[in-house]
Each structure stands twice: as C-alpha cells, then as structure tokens.
Amino acid sequence: MDGPEKMNAQLDDILKEFQQLRERLKYDDLSGVPVGDAVRFVTRAQAGILRVADKLKVAASLHKMSMKDYIRNVLEGHLSELEKKGIKLALKKGK
Fold first, then answer.
1. Which of 22, 64, 77, 80 has the maximum number of C-beta atoms within 10 A of its C-beta?
2. Do 14 and 42 have their domain in common?
3. Among 59, 81, 84, 80, which residue's Cα sits nearest to residue 70?
4. How far is residue 32 from each of residues 36, 42, 55, 72, measured CA to CA in Å?
5. Are residue 59 and residue 17 in the same domain, yes or no?
6. Which tens digits make up the pLDDT trace of 13-49?
7. How far apart are CA 70 and CA 54, in angstroms?
8. How far apart are CA 93 and CA 64, in angstroms?
9. For residues 7 and 52, is the Cβ–Cβ distance under 8 A?
10. How many CB atoms within 10 Å of residue 70?
11. Hey, how many other C-beta atoms are within 10 angstroms of the C-beta on 35?
12. Could you give the number of structural domains in the chain?
C-alpha cells in the first residue's frame, strides 16, 4: 500500500470509528461519548488530519505565488545546481 492509499485507509478508519460512536449514542452531537473514547477518537482524528495537511503544505504554498515566480524559483534552483557543477550561464535580467 503506497502513501496516498495508506492515508486514505487511515482516514476511512477514522470515519468508521466516528460512525460507530454515533451508533452507540442517543444524540448525534456525541455528547454522551465516554471521556476516554472521546479523547482517543479526537487524538486519532487530529493526527490523521495533520498527516494529510502536512502533505498538502507544499501544494498550498504554490498557490500563494504567481506561476511566474514559481517558474523563476525552479529555474534559479536549476541554475544554482549547474553553477555548483562549474557550469556558468549568462542570462539576461528581467526575462
């Protein structure tokens, strides 16, 4: 099972646990959940969400910059790698 499939399976398990808690209780707001069960579920749900959110940080950060800036950053990274290898390129500024 690869990374995305594993994350999907973990989130599915959290949703199943939530449904099981709801089925055991009288009210939909989970107000009757025993404290230990509630803490365990919330901790598990939060950890799953944070794992997914961490994977999306890079993608989300790309949306904060223009495509031109993103391409410039990528090209500057490649240029830096080439310069480390002793290859010098002459690029006109502002293009």
1. 22
2. yes
3. 59
4. 12, 14, 34, 55
5. yes
6. 989 988 888 888 877 777 787 888 888 888 888 888 8
7. 20
8. 24
9. yes
10. 14
11. 7
12. 2
